[in-house]
Backbone:
């Protein structure tokens, strides 16, 4: 029986970070940005185009919506980061 427990313990990866450590960071690959940018452009573009018909107003609305969507996602990331420190 001790042999089996020794094998199981060797198979488990040891984490250098302890639970609740402030060094823990919710990490994502930069490849997600390749999916985020087209999605952001499409969503902000649709929202901007449905509110205005003039091109300069549409472009201004697109940049405003892109900023608000990005800010919303950054706030969610920050909240999840803080929660991960306490879990």
Residues:
């Amino acid at each position: 029986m001790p042999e089996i427990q020794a094998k199981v313990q060797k198979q488990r990866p040891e984490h250098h970070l302890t639970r609740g450590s402030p060094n823990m960071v919710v990490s994502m690959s930069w490849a997600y940005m390749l999916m985020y940018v087209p999605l952001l452009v499409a969503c902000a573009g649709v929202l901007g185009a449905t509110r205005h018909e003039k091109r300069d107003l549409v472009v201004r609305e697109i940049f405003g919506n892109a900023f608000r969507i990005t800010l919303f996602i950054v706030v969610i990331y920050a909240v999840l980061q803080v929660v991960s420190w306490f879990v």
About this structure: Residues 28-87 form one domain. Residues 55-86 form the longest helix (32 residues). The chain has a mean pLDDT of 80.
